[in-house]
Specification:
It is a single chain. It contains no helices and 11 strands.
Length: about 120
């Protein structure tokens, strides 16, 4: 079984910064792409950023230039550095990964989510 555990969410003033972390654990053979999604109240879950195992990144237009995704493959960890936060960034942020496991092959795994609240 593979788990993703996020941390780093919280309350911050507009213009501030937060750094989210997500650690994968379990019977992992390899982790392919990793990413961050978010879901605001009353809205659909949307992609924020993702990163391949080789380090190629993709960002949603709304966060380009403000957020940076990175990963440490040795630690099975993905990060999201969020700067210049805006009230519209308020959402539950979810970690996602494509994980190759010993028992089940490739599985898509989600974390439990971490709440980010940006006060105006």
């Amino acid at each position: 079984q593979v788990q993703l555990v996020e941390s780093g969410g919280g309350l911050v003033q507009a213009g501030g910064s937060l750094r989210l972390s997500c650690v994968a654990s379990g019977s992992i053979v390899r982790i392919n792409g990793m990413g961050w999604y978010r879901q605001a109240p009353g809205k659909q879950r949307e992609l924020v950023a993702d990163i391949t195992s080789g380090g190629m990144t993709t960002y949603a237009d709304a966060v380009k230039g403000r957020f940076t995704i990175s990963r440490d493959n040795a630690k099975n960890t993905v990060y999201l550095q969020m700067n210049s936060l805006k009230p519209e960034d308020t959402a539950v942020y979810y970690c996602n990964a494509g994980v190759v496991t010993f028992a089940y092959g490739l599985r898509e795994v989600w974390g439990q989510g971490t709440l980010v609240t940006v006060a105006s």
